[in-house]
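Run Glycosyltransferase involved in cell wall biosynthesis through structure prediction, thanks.
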Amino acid sequence: MALPSVSIVIPAYNEEDTIRACVLAALHQTVAATEIIVVDNKSTDGTAGVVHALQATYPDAPIHYLRQDTTQGLIPTRNFGLDHATGDVIGRIDADSVLEPTWVEAVQAVFADPEVSASTGPVIYYDMPLRRFGHKADDALRRALVKVTKESHLLFGSNMAIRASAWRQIRHDACMDAADELHEDIDLSLHLHEHGLRIAYSSDMVTGMSARRLDDSPREFYNYVMRFERTYDRHNVRSLTLRAPMAIFLSAYPALKVMREVTQLQR
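Sure, done. The structure for Glycosyltransferase involved in cell wall biosynthesis is below.
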């Protein structure tokens, strides 16, 4: 049986500093992606120019630049990209994600199982110290959460993939969140569970990402983490095990914040 084709969708808003590395990592894979789609959501900086320069440098590469100018926001931009993807499986990453070279290959391996509808994996924080140690710790923590949540696994928006048929199944159920109060990846996870669609976890599906969220003030970070609570409430989720990630993020914040500040001072 042929392995599934993989598209990669990258929503972007004012990401001129990160989009080049993101696209290059998606391009330089051991197994090529069917397409790399950058969806520009009303950027006012040089994001478009960076992508167009990459298209000119790699004219044979399947780099596509799309604009989503109807609505400002991650979710409508994400949806626009997922709707336009042509692969059997659609990877969704952030504009500051830097995929490991074997990411597409790992995605194909996971989705070779026809029962898998979506998948996620660990991250390496490339702008934090002890990156490889941090990766191992992140993977161990996420594998522990998989055991705790049993069949109710959660996707991680910076590193996720969904089967195109599963996306079409939940497309019109996924919350649009005009007030920008929810975690869009947790929302997708819960809609998949509601449809009885399986989410897998793969330790081989690795991406690098920035720890820039830790640059937020404690109040901003707390509000970010509380998106978990608001998303669970929207779905009427009462399970304490599903709420475990929120508690972990809150408890880990002080130590991670100190490490981040030390890293910034050393630059």
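Residues 244-265 form the longest helix (22 residues).
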